[in-house]
Amino acid sequence: MSPVKVFGSAAFTNVARVLVCLEEVGAEYEVVEVDFHDMEHKGPEHLARNPFGQVPAFQDGDLMLFQSRAISRYVLRKYRTPDDGTNLLRDGDLQGSALVDAWLDVEALQYEPAVHAVFVQHRVVPALGGTPDEKAIGENVEKLRKVLEVYEARLGERRYLAGDAVSLADLSHFPYTHYFMGMPYAAVFDAFPRVRAWWQDLVARPAVRKVAAMMDGRSG
Amino acid sequence: MSPVKVFGSAAFTNVARVLVCLEEVGAEYEVVEVDFHDMEHKGPEHLARNPFGQVPAFQDGDLMLFQSRAISRYVLRKYRTPDDGTNLLRDGDLQGSALVDAWLDVEALQYEPAVHAVFVQHRVVPALGGTPDEKAIGENVEKLRKVLEVYEARLGERRYLAGDAVSLADLSHFPYTHYFMGMPYAAVFDAFPRVRAWWQDLVARPAVRKVAAMMDGRSG
């Protein structure tokens, strides 16, 4: 039995973020499904794990944790294999870790809100029988375009967002971008060749490919 | 001349967050105003500091940084006085730092969006000659109430959100809550006595009092 449990399925982007980190460091873990149809996420057992009734929740022995980026930081701090050469948080490097923090906040507070809003209109609203709000989609694709302009300039200076090696700041973009690339609005990336090359780089990583398959129900 | 520069004025909540951290650790710093009326924030000099044209931007010698929570982490990591007893990030404590990360993400992704939306409708929209959207205000006060319910339960187990000592996760709530407490909607806090006690505790801190005065134009 693995001491590490992730509550929630890989199809949720916030769960997939944590799974990518676990796969990157080669940690053993167990995925425990939470039954949303049965309202299990709002039941007392799950609320004890995540007081907001969301996924993921995370357990490592005595420690219960929630919020996907906080869990990701914890996983990378505790389980990183020292000999793999990749310090995905730049722990112990004052300036390097500050840049990872900055670009991770950009992902959480500037990139994800735009992509999330498009996802909700394009996928969630029709699934609930509604009509997508095309104006909201257009506004958020435009917000995303402005963020990608900044990324394109940044990736001209550095191979990855926080420096010349991959970090959590890059990997954290994966789950929502994976879905976005399957939508008609993905064309907004066409004008940004360095961003596209960065994305190809990310999806070539074994950990990312494995979690992509889990998200799409092809394995896991 | 101080090596540490904060670009942007204390009246901006994201700037105030950084200033509280600098004051908590007693670091020397200089505040450099950015002239928004003159569009200085979208000029090449400021964009080199913050590619999104926002405040704060931050300089410490060679390092340029942006995103207020990333700057706050950096300040607390670099300048914390070891003998003051307060490790506001729980650096070096795997579980403790994970809890600070989790509750800081709650502040950024659950608390602030609700308070921000109310602030925009109540303060920004009328200042631009518009009429506040009362429905949006009501929805976001309700979102805030649900977050405060979780806080009230949490503060029954622990004196502060991430444990028994204050952390960045608590302090990060200060700037927006300072403004919110001056609005008629502040009554939503009345039902949560532990949250009110926690707030009184925070605003009694000398660093917080000093930055509150700077935000209100009473000094600084």
Automatic annotation (TrEMBL), chains A, B:
Q: Which GO terms describe its molecular function?
A: glutathione binding; glutathione transferase activity
Q: What Enzyme Commission number(s) apply to this enzyme?
A: 2.5.1.18
Q: Organism's domain of life?
A: Eukaryota
For this protein, the record's PROSITE patterns field holds: GST_CTER, GST_NTER
Task: Tell whether Transferase is among the UniProt keywords.
Answer: yes
Q: What range(s) does the GST C-terminal domain occupy?
A: 93-220
Identify the residues that the record assigns to the GST N-terminal domain, covering every copy: 2-83
Give the residue range of the signal peptide. none
Question: What catalytic activity is recorded?
Answer: RX + glutathione = an S-substituted glutathione + a halide anion + H(+)
GO cellular component assignments: cytoplasm
* Keywords assigned: Transferase
A GO biological process of this protein is: glutathione metabolic process
Query: Family assignment?
Result: Belongs to the GST superfamily. Phi family.
Q: What is the protein's name according to its record?
A: glutathione transferase
> Organism, per UniProt?
Panicum virgatum
